[in-house]
Design a protein that fits this description.
- By secondary structure, the protein is mainly beta.
- It has one domain (19-272).
- It is built from three helices and 19 strands.
- The longest helix is centred in the C-terminal third of the chain and has 20 residues, at 253-272.
- It is globular and about 50 Å long.
Length: 284
């Protein structure tokens, strides 16, 4: 069942802003993974599916307003059923703009059933100076569900020498399996001490995390070999049980985005038994 899009503003006494929610259910049908249900309120939506590699589906998320401002509440929920395989990306970066005070919230809940696969590859999140926002990503896996994904955050716009010197950003990612936490990350940025401190971003504008489940020591070795090419900025990889975690700090988005795509290309055959199939939108 698909519900029509309806945009809603805040009720009196609340801060005006978009209220948007998109729910997507993906399941196998006739030998391919397909969207079997969508429910949406507000401007969040999706493009049609692509199947460039057969059974897995490639899905592009769209947010026509193009950014998040104070008072916005955006919620995304993706459910991948057993036997389904989805690769989710987007046409461009998510921008969190300056706020006059109200907090902008974006929540992403990614649920994968046993026997399902989700690849989560959003473009970067750009936090403009003066933004007040929270970005929360929850990955919930059951049984032998597989997940590969990344989050890339850019504080300010380094290409024009702009830093996130004012405003507040809270960026969180939590991955669990069978309701037990496997990884919990939270970054709070508020002021120059968060950007420059040794326990903060150490002067870098970009922080990023790449995670992959079902990994073994050979995946860690392959990741470290690839990371050896990125010696110009801090990178590191570790293996926690079967969870591969790779972190990077960088002065700009492009080198991290390029590194993560190469890591995915290196690791996908061993983790999922498939060669990398680049989403066509990445070439535009």
């Amino acid at each position: 069942m698909t519900e029509p899009a309806v945009s809603r503003l805040a009720s009196p006494g609340q801060s005006a802003g978009w209220r948007a929610r998109l729910e997507i259910a993906i399941a196998p049908r006739a030998g391919r993974s397909r969207v079997v249900d969508t429910r949406r309120i507000g401007p969040l939506t999706i493009q049609r599916l692509f199947h460039p590699e057969g059974a897995p589906c490639h899905l592009y998320l769209l947010h026509p307003p193009g950014g998040v401002v104070g008072g916005d509440r955006l919620e995304l929920e993706i459910r991948v059923a057993s036997g389904a395989h989805a690769l989710v990306t987007a046409p461009g970066a998510t921008k969190f703009y300056r706020s006059a005070g109200p907090i902008g919230l974006q929540t992403q809940r990614l649920v994968v059933a046993a026997g399902g696969v989700l690849e989560w590859f959003p473009h970067e999140n750009i936090f403009f100076p003066g933004a007040s926002c929270r970005l929360n990503t929850q990955v919930e896996l059951s049984g032998d569900a597989r997940f590969i994904g990344w989050e890339i955050s850019c504080l300010g716009r380094p290409a024009i020498g702009e830093r996130f010197g004012e405003g507040r950003a809270e960026i969180a990612m939590r991955l669990s399996r069978d309701e037990r936490p496997v990884l919990t990350d939270r970054l709070r940025v508020a002021g120059m001490s968060s950007l420059d401190g040794p326990a903060g971003l150490r002067g870098f504008a970009v922080c990023a995390t790449f995670v992959a489940t079902g990994a073994r020591a050979d995946a860690l070795d392959a990741a470290r070999h690839r990371l050896s090419e990125a010696a110009a900025y801090p990178v590191g990889a570790t293996l926690i049980d079967d969870l591969l975690v790779i972190r990077a700090l960088a002065p700009e988005v492009e080198p991290v985005s390029r590194l993560f795509r190469r890591l995915w290309s290196d690791l996908r055959p061993g983790l999922l038994g498939l060669d990398a199939s680049m989403p066509r939108i990445w070439a535009t």
